[in-house]
Amino acid sequence: VSDDQWQYILDMELWDRGRVDFKETFQWLDRFHKSDPERLAQWLYSEDGNLLAHLFFDSALEVRIKEEQDYIPPEGFFTFDNLYYINILDKENEEVIEQMLRQLASEDYNKFQALLLGLGGMVPAEVEEEMYRMKGVRLAEDGYLPFEEAISVYSYQSPDLLKKGGSDYSLSFPDEETGALVPLTPLSYALGDNIFSRSIEKISDSASFERLRLEFAGLCNQIFSADAVIPEGIEDLVRVTEKASGYLSVGLEMLSGNDIEISGDFIRNNPLVSIFRVGFGTTLELKWKVEKRIKDSWFIKNGLDEGFWGDEWGGMLKGILMKRPLFYQGDFRPFEGLSEVKIAGDILNRLLLLDKLMGNISDLFGLQKDQFKDPLLTFHAILFHSWAVRKLYPDGAFAPLSIEKTREFFNLIRKNETTPPYKLKDYRDVFVGDCLSLAGEIDHEDKTVLHEALSGLWEEFAEEYAMVDLAALDPRFTKYIIMADKT
Predict the structure, then answer these.
(1) In a 10 Å sphere around its CB, with 0-12 CB exposed, 13-18 middle and 19+ buried, how is residue 307 labelled?
(2) Of 80, 99, 89, 88, which is closest to residue 40 (Cα–Cα)?
């Protein structure tokens, strides 16, 4: 590879945000040394490599200068000229570093002495800062913005600032040769079944389409830089193109009301990065709304975390509260459409309404904070166990039920059903009504949402126990009813 390619590899691999990763630095210098030691020496003496040589050797070496004729160096020091004595501090890589030093000394001893002499007056932070600045300049030429600039792709963009038509925004190519360099791959991987893809398929103007290819590639590069991702394979490119396409679709759906023609107008009259920011901004708005509502929530006041709300709801809450909100579907990933933003918002609205119900149940039974210490305890247990207690004991306390009482409870709600699967339909409305009676004063819309949420939870509860033989009930395997230990 060329020297420029060496430099590109180091620019991409050595940095952890704004700091040099010395472990990675040594690994790559070792690889270069093994492949071509003479060339590495020449490169480290060059303008591009000199700063790295100073920074690397300042951290790896201790250098002392002979000041008197009878100077006896401390143990561990060696010399090539009886003037400069060197101790390698990185003992793990001592052998390879010594070989690199010998190669540098044999290549040009005057430059080697200047390198050692310069270590004493070097300020590492200043050298690192200059390296970072030069790295940013070089990568910007390849389309990668510095992290501090690239991170703006995740800043909030008001939809009102984008233009549907009449914009003077344009991007043109000065000649055919420049136009021929437009990347084809990123946009081809982004094409899928979403409004962004369907909208650009309607664009027949070749100049506009080439503009989109170039802009989309630039957007992907900016996301790479903002995410501090080092692209190592085609799968990394695919993930970033899907992320870009997803948030563009969220933005276009919100701006156009899912109208393809209007969506195309927004694409033609605005930079893609602005549309991306509108899409990402919708998730930020949801995050800010949830953060505001959970400040005074019951579960936060009682020291509970997202896990209290189970895998699906708790995962959605955790994802939306991340620094950059993510959608939860078994794992965390970027949002792919406005419908997913709505799904997340609906789930979190149900969660927060149930949180108010949890607070009222807690007050009714006089529950204390230390009763929630069990990490396996979820809202399901509080909701259904409290209801079971109220059905069995009108004035009962929130305490584990014996196996006998648990069987009595299931026999009660399985009334008129003699064989599995037990649907428990007769008691669904009873359960929902009893819970709504504890919800307090809430408006009609919230009451409707809470009713739907409770009905859905009842269906999950019924499915959980549809085939359970009451003789097989075990306190270790029930998340809805808190049972006393058999012993």
Answers:
(1) middle
(2) 99
User: Tell me, what amino acid is at 198?
Assistant: R
Q: What tokens does 360 get?
A: 């009222």
For residue 487, the model assigns a pLDDT of 47
pLDDT for 440 equals 86
SS3 of residue 68 by DSSP: coil
Q: pLDDT per residue over 121-144, tens digit each?
A: 888 899 899 999 898 888 888 778
**Number of C-beta neighbours around residue 444 at 10 A:** 7
E strand intervals along 340-419: none
Contacts of 365 (CB under 8 A, 6+ apart): 386, 389, 397, 398
Residue 91 to residues 22, 94, 97: CA-CA distances in angstroms?
A: 14, 5, 9
Taking CA atoms, 332 is separated from 68, 253, 289, 329, in Å, by 65, 22, 20, 6
Q: What is the Rg, in whole angstroms, of the alpha carbon atoms belonging to the chain?
A: 32
384: number of Cβ within 10 Å: 22
Q: Regarding beta strands 19-20 and 61-65, do their DSSP bridges make them parallel or antiparallel, or are they unpaired?
A: unpaired
**pLDDT, tens digit, for every residue of 87-111?**
999 888 888 889 999 999 999 999 9
